[in-house]
Amino acid sequence: MSKPLFTIPIAHTNGTVEVTTPAERVYLLTFNSPPDNRLHSLFIDAFSLALDILEHRYPHGVLITTSKIAKFYSNGLDIDHAFTTPHFYEQKWFPFYQRILTYPMPTIALLPGHAFAGGFMLAMFHDYRIMSPTRGFLCLNEIDIGMVMPAPLISIFREKVAHPNTFRAVALEGKRFTGAEALKEGLVDGLGDGTQGFDEATKLIKEKNLLLKTKHGIWGAEKEEMYRQTIGFLRTNTDNSLWREKIETEKRTRKVRQLKGVEEWETSSKSGLSKL
């Protein structure tokens, strides 16, 4: 039986982040922010505080995160909040992902249901992932809603997805991966749901001897070196935005030139005097 450690409220949804210890130095962080665990500043604050408490007040071990809402791990970003909150990306969202990516304990995302968009990203910023074999999809659906993913968010997939065809399916096709498909493509490390999912996480911890991996205190630093490109993007989003703005300006200028050529061709074609 899990021993309760502490609970942190998520005020805007009357939700909670609850931390228990089902085994010695194994910490289970269960978040519950109805209806679908959207990534909002207050959700991020509560989650981040839990990470800080565990890091600085408890012996280092292994962190498992999961959702109390069976249908969703997370349905992604709270879009309205993100678009109306100044500096949300740079001051909340990206630092949160960097915190997860470089956390000084092994991290396992236990996915009971859907992980879409920012929720899929949140899982990818963990060290390991275990997904339900029967419920939910992993999906990066930005291509279907017309959102260009910022550099740090596409970078984590580039660094962690082994096969370029899988990366293409994730980013350009918005493919919905079942548990079995995600395991085959290396997006998750195991399959399990409910108690079985926790058992699979326990098995992974034992097989990889994860409880001993933090004894020298370099687990987080090692990940900083492994994922230096993604961390660089997370830390310099202003530069990334300027790069995107420059690219878009060049595209608009090029479009004007291209349309002029097309119009000249159309005019000459109608008069039978094509120049091409």
Automatic annotation (TrEMBL):
Annotated pathway: Mycotoxin biosynthesis
GO cellular component assignments: peroxisome
Keyword Ribosomal protein: no
Alphabetical keyword list: Virulence
Swiss-Prot/TrEMBL GO biological process terms: fatty acid beta-oxidation
Name of the featured protein: ClpP/crotonase
Species of origin: Aulographum hederae CBS 113979
Sample GO molecular function, one term: delta(3)-delta(2)-enoyl-CoA isomerase activity
UniProt cross-references to Pfam families, sorted A to Z: ECH_1 (PF00378)
Superkingdom of origin: Eukaryota
